[in-house]
Design the sequence.
């Protein structure tokens, strides 16, 4: 009798993200914690001039881009009402229907839409600076990235902020 093959279940991944900017706009960064079974990974990055909302959203995007297996079951915890409301209250669906060009951060929302389609994503809002140790860890990572050395350039933001001219 032949053994029946069972399909491998996609992994379940828990992601915590946070964004920070020291001034709005100002230097900024994001922090990420990924958890899947026994696996734990942290990531962060800083930018020389950006906004808090951009870093919140970029943290989510970068976390999803780190995933190696498509169709993963992903739960993202964020303290950003901007992100949780955009997704959970279906604002993003309306923005897509109307065209992203009139909203803030269309470059990042386009990236989010593309990467989120590759997984089963659920966004959960958590209160920031409260008792969630993973959210607090992401905050520390984001602040450290924003205040660190070798900050990257958020080219889209700096370019659009300065009328299409990228300052160097």
Sequence:
């Amino acid at each position: 009798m032949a053994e029946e093959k069972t399909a491998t279940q996609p992994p379940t991944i828990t992601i915590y993200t946070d964004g920070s900017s020291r001034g709005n706009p100002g230097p900024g960064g994001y922090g990420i914690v990924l958890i899947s079974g026994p696996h734990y990974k942290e990531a962060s990055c800083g930018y020389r001039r950006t906004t808090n909302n951009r870093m919140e959203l970029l943290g989510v995007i970068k976390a999803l881009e780190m995933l190696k297996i498509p169709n993963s079951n992903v739960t993202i915890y964020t303290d950003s009402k901007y992100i949780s409301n955009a997704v959970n209250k279906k604002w993003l669906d309306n923005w897509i229907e109307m065209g992203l060009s009139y909203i803030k951060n269309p470059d990042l929302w386009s990236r989010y839409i593309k990467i989120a389609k590759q997984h089963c994503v659920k966004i959960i809002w958590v209160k920031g600076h409260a008792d969630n140790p993973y959210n607090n860890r992401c905050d520390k990572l984001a602040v450290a990235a924003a205040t660190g050395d070798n900050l990257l350039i958020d080219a889209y933001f700096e370019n659009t902020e300065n009328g299409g001219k990228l300052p160097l």
Observations:
- Residues 52-66 form the longest helix (15 residues).
